[in-house]
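Q: Predict the assembly, please.
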Amino acid sequence: MVTILDVARLAGVSKATVSRALNGKVFVREEVKARIMQAIDETGYKPNQLARNLANNKTNSVGLVITNGLYNGPFFSSMIYHAATDSEMHGRQLVLADGKHSAQEERDAIDLLLSLRCEAILIYPKYLTVAELDEIIDTSETPIVVINRELTRNRSQCVFVDHQQSSERMVAYLLAQGHTRIAFVAGFEGSPTGDSRLAGYHQALRNAGIEPDPQLLVRGSWSTDSGYAAGRELLARNVPFSCVLAGNDDMAIGVAKACQEAGLRLPEDVSLAGFDDSVIGKYYNPALTTLHVPMDEMIRHAVAILLLPDETPPRAHQGELVCRESVVKVG
Amino acid sequence: MVTILDVARLAGVSKATVSRALNGKVFVREEVKARIMQAIDETGYKPNQLARNLANNKTNSVGLVITNGLYNGPFFSSMIYHAATDSEMHGRQLVLADGKHSAQEERDAIDLLLSLRCEAILIYPKYLTVAELDEIIDTSETPIVVINRELTRNRSQCVFVDHQQSSERMVAYLLAQGHTRIAFVAGFEGSPTGDSRLAGYHQALRNAGIEPDPQLLVRGSWSTDSGYAAGRELLARNVPFSCVLAGNDDMAIGVAKACQEAGLRLPEDVSLAGFDDSVIGKYYNPALTTLHVPMDEMIRHAVAILLLPDETPPRAHQGELVCRESVVKVG
DNA sequence: CTGTTAGCGCATTCAT
DNA sequence: ATGAATGCGCTAACAG
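A: Predicted assembly structure:
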């Protein structure tokens, strides 16, 4: 491996001068600089970022922890996209770490990023609880921001939308369209996002004086496949409903498939809605009514909190109802 | 920052002993080890991976270069997913770098990963040509594997499928269904993948004695939005066709939207097919006929070439025709 | 403006 | 089995 010393010798200067010529903070005679550049060319020298980082005690990188199984699918791909874009905008490199399948592994992923000396860490938790996250942030010297959880103590270290309220708004809209028998495809049992959306569904129904029918509740696990399975389960129960609200768009599209296989037409026979506003919903036939989650805005905010803490006040993010063709008026 | 020295002092041993206790290659008395572990606990010591990497001259990481604008969308999300999974399977960490918007920036991304001392690099090129990639690989000491290009010299350093042949098979199938007026939505001008698929389309038509009609060719840029625009453009030309083949599934779904808006029913009035076999195609209504690209298999192979070069013979990857509902027989 | 010296935190000789 | 010394490649004082 060719090091800075090789370049220095070839150029007939000291290591320090090469370093200075490269980093440009201190002036180096043009003539010397030229010799150095030529030596770099000849040797094919590439600075060792590792050594540089160690000497500077900084890495210019931000870490992102998400559960591997979730990279797939439009939601997380959009998240990685924005995390990478925004990091680079601040001159930082994004490093991914896998939260895998347990709270412990999510901790391990954070530790890995910490040991890599990332300047800041972004986490979209799946298993770690709010209490655990608060604890981790309390004891961490490097800034950590949590996406999609409302923390108790470190309220400025998180970005999120109010899923329950969003869900209430969605259900209120469905009710306003005349639907009273609204089925709900929940997410994972224990998923805070899923639970909040479910709670919003229940709340909105009760606000309208409707007692939720447990027969109208099925569970999926966020994927399109699971939505399809949930849809079939719902249909097999043979209970009447005029509308299905799925915990996210992916599942909604799975439900649509199940309905169509059963000979139901969308939206004539059954209305359908989801959450997240993923790209496909816009192009699906019928175009999917959904609740937009401003991922771009949230990630931009999260990265700003990490990297420019003084200039970044906490602020709320709002979901937005997107009405398209998949929901029709009834009654 | 708590270092190995703090731990050593607290445990009343030398840095070397702590290091040994941690790495486990050399035996350390159980009793001493216990003291060290306790000291680690008390101090909250986290090894500095940077320093460790520098001392070891290895990083346990593999880099992935792709163009940022492409992270989005199911195709690349699946790629990142598999790259991360397979890397971790080999005990390596995935580091993303952005190829941005030019060949130079793709080079820069590689250089960044090189300077980070990644052990190996994976690149899904967009701007760099085969000749340039061959040149880069020739002069690089760290292994580089190119995804989705057939290299000229470094034939064992790339994984790809034959897009032209796949496309020919697809078009042959469409012809066999009785379609003779088949429109084609190409990708970027100059995209090797897009050009190969287009070439396959032309070849298959000529094989069947049909002269390609330029009126049936439109261009998109891989995104669903661009497919929609291309679809509208095609319809505006007012030329007859019974089938549209899009350069990828995303664009196919955009085309579908355009057709439906024009009052055409799928697949009764127009058949539709794509490439890639993205998740949504399976659930789309009608389910999309497509050509499966074995991304999982290709990435697994690529990572194996990088990390286990001796055990990994080069081999061809095959696309596979997936016939679903969006294409119907005519005539 | 440039050379010399001293670390950054850790792993790894060589001693003992 | 453990300690002391050395070096990984680079940057940052400190001199001149």
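Chain B touches chain A through 52 residues (CB under 8 Å). Chain B has a mean pLDDT of 94.
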